[in-house]
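Entry 14. Structure prediction run on the chain below.
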Amino acid sequence: MRSIAVDMDGVLADVYHQFIDMHLQETGKKLQLKALKGLSERAAFPFLEKHVNSKGFFINAPMVPDSRRVLELLHNQYRVFIVSAATEFPLSLSEKQAWLNRHFPFISWRQMVFCGSKEIIHTDIMIDDHFKNLDHFRGEGYLFTQPHNELSPAGKHKRVDSWRALEKLLL
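Output returned:
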């Protein structure tokens, strides 16, 4: 059975909307997704460090549309692992696990990989929104479109704009 590594933030968890909501609470100003195209997450969100290190940030993130439905279908045909660079934000570890347990109950703790660098991941397929995780990957890489990567060419990776697109490609 083929294996898939799926990133969490920006692929399953809609952290962009979480950042936008928290920026609005912080400043009273609503950021528009269109205006964030091509900006790194750190440039787009001036309070990023504060927010990702705040209790509740990760556990309250909304889901990316169609992610649960399609991931469950993939789970029936592939060995699926959720791979998140969670050690970058140590407070996120328990929140990410609780978030996955709530939204993806078919994913067991054995399928959750919380790490620092994803260079050690050797699955057949990786779905991620960051080049830094895909560029060293030896398998088939899928770049999940988010504003920070939207203006960059996908390079050797296949760009996917949604979970529905992944469904068509992988199922």
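The longest strand covers residues 79-84.
Filed with the rest of this week's runs.
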